[in-house]
Design brief:
The chain is of the alpha/beta class. It is built from ten helices and 16 strands. Strands 6-5-4-7-10-15-16 form a seven-stranded mixed beta sheet. A four-stranded mixed beta sheet has the order 11-8-9-14, with helices on one face. α6 links the parallel β4 and β5. The protein is globular and about 60 Å long. The protein binds 5-S-methyl-1-O-phosphono-5-thio-D-ribulose (MRU). 5-S-methyl-1-O-phosphono-5-thio-D-ribulose binds next to α2 and β9.
């Protein structure tokens, strides 16, 4: 991916992001020097996807420290700016997780914070490969017959992470094993992370795919044209209820009806042990203009209002499995990912 492996990199002692709002037409690199600049990049989805937000948040703590030195902030101002960063988007738990992990090293100085943030970047890359292999093993075991027709939603590829991807990492792994027939890519209205980002990644990887409108997915799944659905996650409650890009719930309902496996691939850092169930997950509502417009042009009548939840929650009862870098939680067999559950990892 240009000379990026994923959504971001730490280069010349500073944070650089691919501006994902411009893909697939332009690959532009943003250098982030201020907390405001990073908050803005997060808010307009120049950087997005749960694991990438975790890494960006952690590296953003270094950005904040450097800005504090340049502009003479006191400790209270620095803490307030870091707190604003961790709240830049509410649903993906990785953002607050990444900020908190890096900020915990503030008393030890800049080098320690940089090391903590880069450890998150490196662990994410390694973890994605591990979860991809584990989920691919699972899908090969439950669907041994032929190359698979897969469906995915939003973008859970390298662009949502530091490398390889979560849900799309599973697709890449299956493709490397010769087990993918083709991938159906939900366009993912309103911001088109599927058609703009996932299709871009699959094209570059040489994996056969077709972009579909979100509305086509249920009919294709229930009509037997999809062997498995694979998505990422923004926050997984302790009981397995999973928040992901709006539209994921409809896919899960259709997959349950069709008896097709519905697999969530996400790092352990996406599991929020403090949130008992999906009803307690905060859903981000974004500007109504995103749904009232298409490609920057208003398509709804001037008098219409819009409602724009960016995520929905799929109840655990509709999931087949949650796969992380450490384990497979077989949700369909009653396992739960939370610490209180028998599957807990210390
Ligand atoms: O609004 P976005 O683009 O940040 O939403 C991203 C998603 O919903 C992804 O599917 C999710 O973060 C998982 S990707 C690892």
């Amino acid at each position: 991916m240009t000379d990026f492996d994923g959504a971001l990199r730490w280069s010349d002692d500073g944070l650089e992001l691919i501006d994902q709002t411009l893909l697939p037409h332009e690959v532009r690199v943003l250098r982030i020097d201020t907390v405001d600049g990073l908050r803005d990049a997060i808010a307009r989805l120049a950087v997005r996807g749960a694991p990438a937000l975790g890494a960006a948040g952690a590296l953003g703590v270094v950005v904040a420290m450097d800005q504090a030195v340049r502009e003479g902030w006191d400790g209270n101002r620095l803490a307030a700016e870091i707190d604003g960063l961790r709240r830049a988007r509410p649903t993906a738990v990785n953002l607050a997780w990444g900020v908190d992990r890096a900020a915990a090293r503030l008393p030890d100085g800049r080098d320690a914070v940089v090391a903590a943030a880069l450890a998150i970047v490196e662990a994410d890359a390694r973890g994605n490969r591990a979860m991809g292999a584990r989920a691919a093993d699972f899908l090969e075991a439950v669907l041994p017959e032929r190359p698979l027709r897969l469906l995915t939603h939003c973008n859970s590829g390298a662009l949502c992470a530091t490398e390889w991807g979560t849900g799309l990492g599973v697709v890449r792994e299956l493709a490397a094993r010769g087990r993918v027939d083709h991938v159906l890519v939900d366009e993912t209205r309103p911001l088109l992370q599927g058609s703009r980002l996932t299709a871009w990644e699959l094209a570059r990887a040489g994996i056969d795919h077709a972009v579909i409108s979100d509305a086509a997915a249920a009919g294709l799944i229930v009509g037997g044209q999809v062997d498995a659905v694979i998505i990422g996650a923004d926050r997984i409650a302790a009981n397995g209820d999973t928040a992901n890009k709006v539209g994921s719930l409809g896919l899960a309902l259709a997959a349950a009806d069709a008896g097709a496996p519905f697999v969530v691939a996400a790092p352990e850092s996406t599991i929020d042990h403090a949130t008992p169930h999906g009803g307690a997950i905060e859903i981000e509502y974004r500007d109504e203009d995103e749904v009232l417009s298409f490609a920057g042009r208003r398509v709804a009548p001037a008098g219409s209002r819009g409602l724009n939840p960016a995520f929905d929650v799929t109840p655990a009862r509709l999931l087949t499995a949650i796969v992380t870098e450490q384990r497979l939680v077989h949700v369909a067999r009653g396992e739960q990912p939370g610490r209180s559950a028998a599957t807990a990892v210390s």
